[in-house]
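Course exercise 7: structure representation. Students receive a sequence record and must write out the corresponding structure in token form. The form below is the worked example handed out in class, using ZN581 protein (69 residues). Read each field label carefully; the graders check that inputs and outputs are placed in the correct fields and that the protein name is recorded exactly as given.

STUDENT ID: A-19
EXERCISE PROTEIN: ZN581 protein
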Amino acid sequence: HSPHKPHVCRACGKAFKRASHLERHKFTHFAGRKPHGCPLCPRRFRDSGELAQHQRVHTGERPFQCPQC
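STUDENT ANSWER:
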């Protein structure tokens, strides 16, 4: 688990391990639209995939196994 996050958003300073995650994040600054709301908390998301990933926080689901753990 490397803490290194070389891809930094110029708009807000948030850092990411992968360039693709930074590219996805950039939409939050100019789209402003987050139609997918979590039914269990106030968080909202730009697409249904992000909502589905977030909902694992509430369910405890861990579909991917870390090879180091």
